[in-house]
Inverse folding.
């Protein structure tokens, strides 16, 4: 359990990456052909997906998209703490 | 900036406030950068992709674009 990455830090990284992805998305809405923006979107989006996947492996899925990335053999979606259950894990 | 404030009060009617003209004194003969454009219209210059914050700074500043990271204080464009 000691090698387990910090849950808060992981969530924070996901939040940061999600915000960047969203802001790039807004830029791309008006600049759909901007190659630098497209490349950075790709980079941040990939990093975000990776972070979500890693989070799911250690702490269960945050969204249904990573439900299969968690290591459990049984369906554990319903057992994970809800966002408002901070002390849940 | 107290100078600015007092100038402001004594300037002739018809003067307009714009951040661009803060330092131009007196009110006559100044350069209007938007001269020739239709009045009462708003213009939004086209944004370019540059000076992008990393994700951590972006989230804490509320934008990933340095150019948009402004100290909006709800006080108007006053030079402080």
């Amino acid at each position: 359990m000691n090698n387990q990455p910090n849950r808060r830090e992981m969530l924070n990284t996901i939040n940061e990456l999600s915000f960047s992805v969203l802001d790039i998305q807004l830029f791309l809405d008006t600049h759909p052909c901007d190659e630098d923006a497209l490349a950075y979107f790709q980079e941040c989006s990939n990093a975000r997906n990776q972070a979500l996947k890693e989070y799911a492996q250690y702490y269960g899925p945050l969204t249904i998209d990573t439900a299969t990335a968690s290591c459990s053999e049984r369906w554990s979606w319903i057992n994970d703490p809800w966002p408002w259950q901070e002390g849940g894990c | 900036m107290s100078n600015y404030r007092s100038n402001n009060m004594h300037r002739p009617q018809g003067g307009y406030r714009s951040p661009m003209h803060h330092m131009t004194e007196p009110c006559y003969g100044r350069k209007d950068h938007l001269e020739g454009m239709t009045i009462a219209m708003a213009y939004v210059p086209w944004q370019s992709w540059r000076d992008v914050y990393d994700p951590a700074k972006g989230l804490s500043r509320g934008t990933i674009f340095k150019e948009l990271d402004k100290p909006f204080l709800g006080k108007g464009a006053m030079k402080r």
Observations:
- The first helix of chain B runs from residue 2 to 10.
